[in-house]
Design goal:
By secondary structure, the protein is an alpha/beta fold. The protein has a single domain, classed as TIM Barrel. The protein contains 10 helices and 8 strands. It has an 8-stranded parallel β-barrel with strand order 1-2-3-4-5-6-7-8, surrounded by 4 helices. It binds flavin-adenine dinucleotide. Pfam families: MTHFR.
Length: about 290
């Protein structure tokens, strides 16, 4: 099932998971999925590392299994910067064969030790290519606090419009911890004529290391109340986990009440946290 059709019916709630790290057996993700089974999100997306090696190559298999065993639509992420056109064609053929029809089409991060291939320089190049095939529902990434490579927020929105015009049907945002950025971003999108559904990406923080890594990798502001929470509970794993869950729930309640098209929860493969958040907010998505 195409995930873009869901937005016509409801406020959408989805999970994001990642294939196990290189050294872990791929089966570990199936245990995680089993524990997430009762939560019935509207879809589950599966990441693919821009390096494209090891268990990363199991993205299509995991996406297929979600559809066949949980009867939920799945989304396969596809960062193309390190793939040639022929490699992308092979991946698209595999997804078609596995009946995975939703793709989050990405440029991917430029890795310091890897020279990017030249076939897909920006996500809009990949989106144009996939769109020409006419077989997939295409999803794009967007950045309420501006992508870290962009010269300005104005240019970033212009580039986002290019992606939408190339054939994107829905968008998912980078994580953010201050909803104000999301609301301002939505206004800018409206002005730019971007009128497809935008899901807000929410990441529950469960430890300080995780957030430090995230902030290093992306352009994300940590509000004072969030920093205070981290400082107060950083040495108490249970308290920081519970505070992170409560913070994410508060963000979601506000976003849904203000009319967001949907929420995309970065589960970090943590079924306990995903379940707590889903249970606390489920009725908001049914209202
Ligand atoms: P683009 O849309 O190409 O944008 C990248 C930069 O180039 C931006 O600064 C933009 O303003 C600029 N730009 C875009 N188009 C043009 C143009 N035509 N001309 C000039 N400048 C342009 N990474 C992974 O490796 N695997 C994943 O599974 C993954 N999942 C993600 C899921 C979500 C929801 C999000 C938000 C990000 C995800 N990422 C993932 C990270 C993503 O790959 C990086 O943020 C990457 O740096 C940018 O990808 P993009 O598709 O947004 O790039």
């Amino acid at each position: 099932m195409r995930t873009d059709a869901l937005f016509k019916e409801k406020t959408v709630f989805s999970f994001e998971i990642f294939p196990p790290r290189r050294t872990a057996p791929v089966e570990t993700i199936y245990h995680t999925l089993e524990r997430l089974k009762g939560q019935r999100p509207d879809f589950i997306s599966v990441t693919l590392g821009a390096g494209g090696t090891g268990n990363n190559l199991s993205t299509a298999d995991i996406a297929q299994k979600i559809q066949e065993e949980q009867f939920l639509p799945s989304v396969a992420h596809l960062p193309a910067v390190n793939f040639s056109k022929n490699e992308v064609i092979t991946i698209l053929d595999e997804l078609k064969q596995k009946k995975v029809e939703n793709i989050l089409a990405l440029r991917g991060d430029i890795l310091p030790d890897k020279e990017p291939k030249k076939d897909f320089v920006y996500a809009n190049d990949l989106i144009t290519f996939i769109h020409e095939q006419g077989k997939f529902n295409i999803i794009g990434a967007c950045y309420p606090e501006t992508h870290s490579d962009a010269a300005s927020s104005v240019e970033d929105i212009q580039n986002l419009k290019r992606k939408v015009d190339a054939g994107t049907n829905q968008l998912i945002t980078q994580l953010f911890f201050d909803n104000h950025y999301f609301y301002t971003f939505k206004e800018k999108c409206e002005i730019a004529g971007i009128d497809i559904p935008i899901q807000a990406g929410i990441m529950p923080v469960v430890n300080k290391k995780q957030i430090e890594r995230m902030v290093k990798m992306s352009n994300v502001t940590l509000p004072t109340k969030f920093l205070k929470m981290m400082e107060r509970y950083e040495h108490n794993p249970e308290a920081i986990r519970d505070a992170g869950i409560a913070y994410a729930i508060n963000q979601i309640v506000d976003l849904v009440a203000q009319g967001a098209d949907g929420i995309h929860l970065y589960t970090m493969n943590n079924p306990y946290v995903a379940q707590k958040i889903r249970e606390a907010t489920r009725s908001l998505f049914e209202a």
